[in-house]
Amino acid sequence: MTPGHRPAALGADETRPLRKDAARNRELLLAAAAEQFAEHGVDVPLEDVARHAGVGIATVYRHFPTRVALIEAVYRREVDQLCDSVDDLLATLAPVAALEAWMGNFVRYVAAKRGLSAALKDMIDAEPELFASTRTHIYAAAGTALDAAIATGEIRPDVEPEDLIRAMGGICMATDDHGYTERAAKLMGLLLDGMRYRAPGTPPPA
Hints:
Layout: H1 20-40, H2 46-53, H3 57-63, H4 67-92, H5 95-114, H6 117-126, H7 128-151, H8 161-174, H9 180-196
Helix pairs in contact: 1-2, 1-4, 1-5, 4-5, 4-7, 5-7, 5-9, 6-7, 7-8, 8-9
């Protein structure tokens, strides 16, 4: 059953710090739920989520009193992982390589988000501020990755975060079928090549 138009209830663990074992169980549940939702949709039995996480069903409800609360937490986790990955990538890779890797992370984020799509449509009306803040967070992460790459002279300076997000979103929509990841990765490579075209630090076209 698709979740209704009501705000997600907060679990007790979201109002005070968690013990280490409770924090570990919560993360196991979120990872298992993300995998199960992506594979089977948000109507997958919560007992299956608990089993894949290696915990009991009571632990699920202790952390997430409702299915809606679990779905929202999974969504927030996916967004946070996507956005937080920028700093790690820039710390370990050259800027353009970090941008390319982050674009790959965006493809995986969209794949995970598709498993939540039916529920997210219902949640938009109930919690518009959640999606507004999410959009701001993702645009900021895209801006961080782009600015670093543009500063090298290898990416066109006229590319804006909104341009990148819209282009990547279009690619993901156009490859919504079997073999999505491979097709999207190929098109992301072409998009990156396009952002290199006529960049200040690249050779002029022949």
